[in-house]
């Protein structure tokens, strides 16, 4: 095992062209969490390559040559002997021990309760990050974003292979039950969906216990493959389900509904900005911190918008909504309303606004 450690230590890390992310590593010790193919490894390697070669050790914990007990026994003395300041354990599992080093970096899809490590949540690309991968920024960029989604590697996958690439990635990452759950979530994307409803549907086609399904559903949430949005002031009401990336919808379902895909895209931008939000009847997103409502209407005319605003006037009045933002594909403007300011904003302008 010492020979393998020497190999890890002497191997030169390789990194293709790196696009800067909003998340970054500084001199602190970090636990980096994110779904498969979100860019955790590249983030770590980019940081390590800025350091002196002899000062760090990078270990991919998925390497099948590793004998964990033997490596754990040798790692502290190896780090001490070679004056290693920074240890990176990529694809970490709790079976690995932590030697005494100046800086520790671990990456995992699952979050572990390790209070001595700062948590860095690495989401998939938001629209602003996506633009760094584009050869040019023009009117086609937004359509390209809707086609590819936020997985960084998708820019290198040919058009005819993208669906199978995503399917294979999810099959490799998730177990059979988790895969069946996320397939159903893809079908119900941007709609109300409960774990019990998933159980009722899946048990018709496979043998499964309720406890096993609930546990698998929880794991998908903990790994951030799916997100649940609460109804405002009704925490026990059925939540709406969103996917970590809209490309998963196309990979797992043949059903087409651009409105729901568009809503999921808006939700992800709110999520990545750390904005607290809820849904309500007839309202995609309510942002209490700014007394704002967001309506997702990719294609809408003013007549239909006025009728929509009339249907939610009770909510607008009751919660003192000062701002209504209508996010569209390309329409822009303002309309007058007696209770709130109403701005119609294209997605790309809204997503890059702050």
Quick overview:
The protein has 354 residues and is α/β, with parallel strands linked by helices. It is 38% helix and 18% strand. A hairpin with a 5-residue loop joins strand 13 and strand 14.
Query: What is the CATH superfamily classification of the largest domain?
Result: Winged helix-like DNA-binding domain superfamily/Winged helix DNA-binding domain
CATH-defined topology of the largest domain: Arc Repressor Mutant, subunit A
CATH architecture of the largest domain: Orthogonal Bundle
**Which stretches of 5+ consecutive residues score pLDDT under 50?**
none
Distance between the termini: 50 Å
The multimeric state of the shown protein is single chain
The number of helical segments is: 14
Query: Would you report the number of β strands?
Result: 14
Morphology: globular
Overall structural domain count? 3
Biggest sheet: strand arrangement: 9-10-11-12-14-13
Radius of gyration: 23 Å
Broad CATH class of the largest domain: Mainly Alpha
What can be said about the biggest beta sheet? 6 strands, mixed
């Amino acid at each position: 095992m010492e020979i393998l450690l020497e190999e890890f230590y002497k191997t030169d890390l390789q990194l293709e062209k790196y696009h800067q992310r909003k998340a970054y590593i500084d001199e602190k010790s970090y636990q980096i969490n994110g779904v498969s193919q979100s860019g955790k490894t590249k983030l770590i390697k980019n940081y390590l390559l800025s350091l002196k070669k002899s000062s760090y050790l990078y270990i991919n914990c998925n390497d099948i040559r590793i004998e964990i007990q033997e490596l754990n026994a040798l790692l502290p003395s190896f780090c001490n002997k070679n004056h290693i300041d920074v240890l990176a354990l990529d694809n970490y599992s709790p079976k690995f021990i932590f030697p005494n080093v100046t800086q520790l970096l671990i990456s995992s899809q699952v979050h572990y309760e390790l209070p001595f490590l700062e948590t860095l949540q690495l989401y998939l690309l938001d629209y602003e990050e996506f633009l760094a991968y584009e050869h040019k920024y023009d009117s086609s960029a937004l359509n390209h974003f809707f086609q590819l989604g936020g997985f960084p590697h998708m820019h290198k996958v040919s058009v005819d292979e993208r669906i199978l690439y995503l399917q294979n990635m999810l099959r490799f990452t998730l177990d059979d039950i988790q895969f069946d759950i996320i397939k159903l979530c893809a079908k119900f994307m941007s709609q109300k969906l409960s774990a019990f409803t998933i159980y009722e549907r899946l048990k018709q086609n496979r043998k499964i216990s309720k406890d096993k399904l609930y546990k698998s559903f929880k794991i998908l949430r903990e790994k951030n493959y799916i997100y649940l949005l609460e109804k405002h002031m009704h925490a026990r009401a059925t939540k709406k389900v969103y996917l970590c990336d809209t490309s998963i919808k196309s990979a797992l379902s043949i059903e087409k509904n651009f409105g729901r895909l568009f809503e999921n895209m808006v939700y992800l931008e709110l999520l990545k900005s750390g904005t607290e939000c809820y849904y309500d009847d007839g309202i995609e997103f309510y942002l209490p911190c700014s007394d704002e409502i967001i309506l997702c209407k990719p294609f809408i005319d003013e007549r239909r918008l006025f009728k929509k605003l009339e249907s939610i006037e009770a909510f607008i009045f009751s919660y003192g909504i000062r701002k209504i933002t209508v996010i569209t594909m390309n329409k822009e403007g303002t309309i007058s309303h007696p209770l709130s300011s109403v701005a119609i904003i294209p997605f790309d302008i809204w997503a890059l606004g702050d």
